[in-house]
Amino acid sequence: MNSPSRVISFVNAGHFIDHYSMLIFAAAVIIMGPALGMAYSELLPYATPGFVAFGAGSLLTGWLGDRWSRRHMMLIFFVGIGASMISVGFVQTPAQLGAALFAIGIFASIYHPVGTAMIVSYADRLGREMGINGVWGNLGVASSALVTGVIGQYLGWRSAFILPGVVTIMIGIAFAMMVVHEDRKGSKQAAAQARVAKKDMWRVILSLLIVVIAISTTFNAVTVALPKLFAERLADLTKSPALLGVIAACVYVFGAMTQYTIGRLLDRYSLKTVALPLSFMLAPFLYLAASLSNLPLILVSIGIVMGAFGQVTVNDAMVGKYTSEEWRSRAYAVRYFIGFTAAGASVGLVAWLYEQGGFVTMLHAFAALCLLAIAAAIILPREIRTPQAA
Predict the structure, then answer these.
(1) Where are the transmembrane segments (predicted)?
(2) Residue 385: what are its φ and ψ, rounded to 5°?
(3) Do 315 and 215 contact (CB within 8 A), yes or no?
(4) What is the pTM of this model?
């Protein structure tokens, strides 16, 4: 038997690595261009296949996690994504770069359906562990640009890929030595303490589908648009790109802490009790942000990020609570496939809406979209608590 705390610690490290690895290129491309003799606009498209694989690959990797072994799939994740990062550091041609970034996306697609299902299998308190896991993922997002910039400046862009790749493989070796394959189907799980009536499962599926599309689209749109929004609307406070980056990072810290808080609440209250009030946050804050600037905009942006990050934790907990152990990786695979597909579409949507009427039109449009989150929370049925949970 594996130690649950040890398994969850490795899975949390995997969440950090997953998001970190996917964003190295976005930070390194600025200094890669001159080194490879290519413009920024010429290099950036080579990341597209990797992001497509990141979402589409989850369907296959989730199926393998259920049908084969989640432990073995996570070992492949650590070693594979580490080797792929190292391979980027040795590319000589644009074609090799595209292939290496595609490999990162393929191995990165393993984590969410498989790693999240492992969290559910080993968690004693599901909400708390989901919240902590979300914080680790956000740390990966937040630190990628900073660490890549520092390594790239002092050791070169190739080292920015090679060094984290080596560290990731070392973590994979430790994982292989300390975590064994284990059948968790008959084990006591926190996820098994809450159920809904079979006749109400269609409401769970419909609610999840609606909220994943609405929140994934909005979440990605906000993360893409926030730096530009701050650059335009905080001009009276600062024109320093570095300070704007610090402000954006501080805003995201509130989002990470929200995930932890929502996770703790999900351990104490039913999912609907937490989801319903949370669903009312995004639409009004997005609508208000359309007409604000300077400090009021920063405060409202904190509300937007808190609402979006909190909803992500609710979505993951919903799948964990209401799916059986033998189907859980596949359920997460579908959830993330839909979510990442919607998130990918949001980039083009942001550009189009901004062209039509600037940030006012864009923020009003996403505020309207987030009304669907309220509908999804209302649709969600009440839980039937088991005697074990009581």
Answers:
(1) 20-40, 46-65, 72-91, 97-123, 135-155, 161-180, 201-222, 242-262, 269-289, 295-314, 334-354, 360-380
(2) -80, 135
(3) yes
(4) 0.75
Distance (Å, whole) CA 360 – CA 353: 9
Contacts of 138 (CB under 8 A, 6+ apart): 19, 252, 255, 256, 259, 309
Structure tokens at 76: 């492949």
Which parts of the chain have pLDDT scores under 50?
A: 387-390
* 138 in Cβ contact with 256 (< 8 Å): yes
Q: Return the bridge partners of 385, or none.
A: 194
DSSP 309-349: HHHHHHHHHHHHHHS-GGGHHHHHHHHHHHHHHHHHHHHHH
Give the number of C-alpha atoms closer than 13 A to the C-alpha of residue 20, restricted to the C-beta side: 28
∠ CA 189-192-197, nearest 5°, is: 175
CA distance 78 to 111: 9
**367 contacts 286 by C-beta, under 8 angstroms:** yes
Helix (H) or strand (E) run with residue 73 in it? helix 70-88
| Identity at 14, one-letter amino acid code | G
Cα–Cα distance, 88 to 103 (Å, whole number): 10
Whole-angstrom CA distances from 52 to 99, 117, 135, 369 are 13, 22, 24, 24
Query: Residue 291 and residue 367: Cα distance in Å, rounded?
Result: 13
C-alpha R_g of the chain: 21
**Residues 254, 302 contacting (CB under 8 angstroms):** yes
Angle at the Cα of 25 from the Cα atoms of 331 and 165, rounded to 5 degrees: 75
Size of the chain in residues: 390
**DSSP-assigned letter for residue 124:** S
In contact, 195 and 383? CB cutoff 8 Å: yes
d(CA 44, CA 277): 40
Interval 244-282: pLDDT, tens = 767 877 887 888 889 889 988 988 888 889 999 999 999
Q: List the beta strands (DSSP E) in the chain.
A: 194-195, 384-385
pLDDT digits (tens, 9 = 90+) for 366-388: 999 999 999 999 998 877 655 44
- Would you state the pLDDT for residue 241? 62
Rounded CA separation 227/262 (Å) = 26
Strand, helix or coil for residue 385: strand
Contact predicate 140/17, CB 8 Å: yes
CA distance 207 to 121: 23
